[in-house]
Structures are given as structure tokens and as C-alpha cells.
Amino acid sequence: MSGARIDRVRARLAALGVDALLVSDLTNIRWLTGFTGSNGWVVVGRDAVALVTDGRYGDQAAKQLAASGVEASVLVGATGAETQAHLATLCAPHDRVGFEAEHVTYAQHSRWVEVFDTELWPAHGVVEAERRVKDSVEIELMARACAIADQALAEVAPHLEGLTEAQVRNRLELRMRELGATGPSYDTIVATGPVNAALPHHRPTDTVIEAGHTVIIDVGALVGGYHSDMTRTFVVGDPTPLQAELYELVLAAQQAGVAAVRAGMSVKELDGVCRGIITEHGYGDWFTHGTGHGVGLLIHEDPFVNRAGDAILQVGDVVTVEPGVYREGFGGVRVEDLVVVTEHGCRVLTATPKDSPCLPSPPTT
Ligand code: ZN
Ligand code: ZN
């Protein structure tokens, strides 16, 4: 990253009316500097950058900053008071320092007001606005994470019948680790049958997957800190007319959403493409969540794709497109892909086939 990300954030300081930004959110710190410890603050000034952490992470911070090509001093606070004193010293040369209003508690802010001589100014989503736009390194990590989830699902999906939801989850998560993932990207969702699959975020149980069930599997891998996210829905045995109708409806809505993605489009408009098709067919009330969300160092991050959002998609956004329908007694259907917004549409990172709800054959390779 070689300091380029620091420069992108620094370029925003003047417009914010601050001389420096005090970054507290650990995900933002990781994105800016490569530091992955659980305790840290970064002060981004116009000329210099400094990271403050505790004694567990001093060496790690120096190594990770160097590996990222970020030139910054590292200060270690042996106690909480010493850490606050370091931050006060770093902020002292600046007239006004922005703090991350979404990530600082009232108690933290009160302590800073006591020990800092500098004026503190609430800043909103400064690093997040830059973090949203993924560079090629980040996109390739997510593409690898998607490929691992694709491979794991290809191996596990042909053998769902007779297993419990929890067993399917365990197999997927073990295979993703064996294929090189740090772990699952989130708690894998396996939801089967007329009751469990009616819950969009059902947690896997000992319920056995049986003929006649719809099975929703929402699975992603974590690679180099970056997440993937994908959902496929299967029907065990021959689909009923309603299962076939709803699968085709959700798939049509999802494909229309993916086909519509382009830079300059509002998230509201994208949500409307998927929701409009499902609503036209009379199932609008069954689509109970937003169409998608950004993915990156977090599994859910900006931009959120829903009816209320006002974000505009930009080149480099990585978002999901995941309409679904749910109703107790029926179960549910969701189809989700992860896409990168490009100049001329999008690149789909998830590759598991979705043309049929029937259980796939085992992979031959
Ligand atoms: Zn998902
Ligand atoms: Zn998702």
C-alpha cells in the first residue's frame, strides 16, 4: 500500500477543516497501515503519521508498518494513561484534530477532552469513504476467497441429503481452511426446510436435510483479512411447482440486479431492480431485507444496498446482490453473488452455478 492510502485520507483533511485525524477504528487502522493488533490509534497529520499501541504490539506494529511501506513512528504506552499522554502529545501541534465520531465512546471522548490541549472535532466516515474503493490487491484477495468458497461448496453440495445443517456447516468450514482460508468469512448459514429456511439468518442446528426441503447455504471464506460472501439455494429431490416458481423468480431478480450494476447508479435504484421484479409477481412482502451490502475487511460495510440508502456506486465498490423470499411453511430462497463495480458494469467474483436449484453432481476434478 506504500503510504498511498494515507495520502488519500490526508487529501480529505482540508475539506473537513481539520489539521489531523485521530483514527481509533481497528479496521480503519489495518486498512491504513497494515497493523492487525487489537489495540491501537493512528494520528494522520499533514506531514507525519504515528501509531500508538501497548507493549504487546510494539514490535509487531513496526514490522507490519514497514511491510506495508508506511512511514510512521510507533509509540508504546505501558499504561492507559501513558497511551493517552502519547496521543495528547501527537495532537498538540495541531489546532484542530478530527476524531472518528462513529467509533469513539462518550467515555473515551471525555478523557481526551480532559488531557488534550487541542480542539477535537467530530469527523464522519473519512477513512471508510476511501476504504470503500478497493484496489487490485484487495480485489484479488476477495477473488481468492470467493474461489475457495466455490470449491468447498462444489464438493459439499452434492451430498446434502441426510446430513444435519451443522454437519454441512462443519464440512464447508473445514474444506475452506484446507483450501487456504484463514477461516469462514462469517458464521456459515445452512437453513433447511419449511421452518428454518424461512429465517434469512438462521443458525445451523441438528435439523436433518430431507427430500422436499429447500436448503439455503450462505458461505464465504476469509483470505488475508478480506471476506467473500455467496448464497445458493438447493431443492432436495424434484422441486414442487411453488419451489420452482420462487427459485426462478428470485434468480431472475438476482440476475437482473447483477446485469444492472454500474458506476453512477444509486443503491436505491439497484435495490429497486431486484425488488421490483419480486413485487410485480406478488411476493414483495416475502423479500424482507435489503438487496446487498459492501464487503471488504468487514463482511458488512459501506455501501449498503437498500431502499433507504443514498450512496452512489463507484468503480472499485465490492457489493453483494442477494434478493430472497421467505415464508414459514414454505421455507426460503436466496441467491447471492459478490461483484466488483467496474467502468462498464461489474465483474462477478463468485462462480458457483445458479441456473438450477437441483443438487449438483460431485465435481470430477
Ligand atoms: Zn451472504
Ligand atoms: Zn451478504
Structural overview:
Helix content is 36%, strand content 23%. It is elongated and about 70 Å long. It has 365 residues and is of the alpha+beta class. The chain has a 6-stranded mixed beta sheet, sandwiched between helices. Strands 7-10-11 form a 3-stranded antiparallel beta sheet. It has a 3-stranded antiparallel beta sheet with strand order 8-9-12. It folds into 2 domains: 130 residues, Creatine Amidinohydrolase, Chain A, domain 1 (3-Layer(aba) Sandwich); 213 residues, Alpha-Beta Complex (Creatine Amidinohydrolase), CATH 3.90.230.10. The relative contact order is 0.11. The structure holds zinc ion (2 copies). The site of one zinc ion (ZN) has 5 residues, from loops.
Q: How much beta, percentage-wise?
A: 15-25%
Mean pLDDT: 96
CATH homologous superfamily assignment of the largest domain: Creatinase/methionine aminopeptidase superfamily
**Which CATH first-tier class of the largest domain would you pick?**
Alpha Beta
Count of DSSP-assigned helices = 12
CATH architecture of the largest domain: Alpha-Beta Complex
Q: In which range does the helix fraction lie? A: 25-40%
List the quaternary state of the chains.
single chain
Counted up, domains total 2
Which structural class do you get from the secondary structure elements?
Answer: alpha+beta
Bound molecules: zinc ion
Major β-sheet annotation: 6 strands, mixed
Could you say what the CATH topology of the largest domain is called?
Answer: Creatine Amidinohydrolase
